[in-house]
User: Which sequence fits this backbone?
């Protein structure tokens, strides 16, 4: 049974982190390790996360020396992960009980290095307020126009990360989008399961930055990480924003 490492950066998610961790611990696929990274780094977060780490021997806690942000915290956890596969779950999101079981079987049957799933959108009280479908196959052009991959649904073979270029960039938002685009540009097959296997929480806490910050980071995706010119970057940023509004 394959070992799966689940990476969970923590920053001011005290209201939901217990339920998020429990949704991972309750997986039907039990051979897993949870790596929680304390990126809040204060007395409050230390107390909460130590209590959580005592819930199960499969939980490992990493404490950052300084605030790194979600992307760099994930990079740090990738280095210590022991699993054959790596998954991600934000500390306010939830997993369905058979998420890993279904996803692992799907990946092994098709010999995939990367997969993602459809997901529900929930509010603060875990009421379902929407959903996102998962395309069977996403290529670079499709992904460049619209980021439809939920971070907490993704499962990746760990050996992909042997190449150092595959890491999350230092961005406040859209750090996962940049990494997915790198995979797609390099022709790594990215296949989706159109089954709701996770729940993404829409809340004030999950909106980690202002609209201006998101637009700035969106521009950087195209201008810096894809190397497009100013006008081309603005074109794709506008296109991305329109697609986001249409989905909302």
Assistant:
């Amino acid at each position: 049974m394959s070992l799966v490492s689940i990476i969970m950066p923590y920053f001011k998610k005290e209201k939901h982190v217990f339920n998020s961790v429990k949704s991972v611990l309750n997986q039907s696929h039990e051979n897993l390790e949870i790596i929680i990274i304390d990126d809040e780094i204060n007395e409050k977060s230390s107390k909460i996360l130590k209590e959580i780490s005592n819930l199960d021997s499969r939980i490992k806690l990493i404490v950052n020396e300084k605030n790194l942000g979600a992307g760099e915290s994930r990079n740090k956890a990738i280095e210590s992960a022991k699993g054959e596969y790596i998954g991600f779950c934000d500390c306010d999101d939830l997993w369905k009980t058979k998420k890993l079981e279904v996803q692992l079987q799907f990946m092994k049957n098709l010999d995939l290095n990367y997969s993602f799933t459809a997901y529900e959108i929930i509010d603060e009280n875990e009421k379902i307020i929407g959903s996102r479908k998962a395309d069977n196959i996403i290529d670079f052009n499709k992904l460049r126009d619209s980021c439809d991959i939920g971070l907490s649904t993704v499962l990746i073979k760990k050996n992909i990360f042997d190449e150092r270029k595959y890491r999350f960039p230092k961005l406040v938002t859209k750090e996962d989008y940049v990494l997915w685009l790198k995979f797609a540009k390099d022709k790594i097959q990215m296949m989706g399961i159109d089954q709701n296997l996770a729940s993404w929480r829409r809340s004030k806490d999950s909106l980690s930055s202002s609209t201006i910050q998101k637009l700035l980071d969106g521009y950087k995706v195209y201008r810096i990480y894809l190397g497009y010119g100013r006008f081309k970057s603005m074109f794709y940023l506008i296109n991305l924003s329109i697609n986001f509004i249409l989905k909302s």
In short: The beta strands are 4-10, 32-38, 59-63, 85-88, 94-95, 114-122, 128-132, 155-157, 191-201.
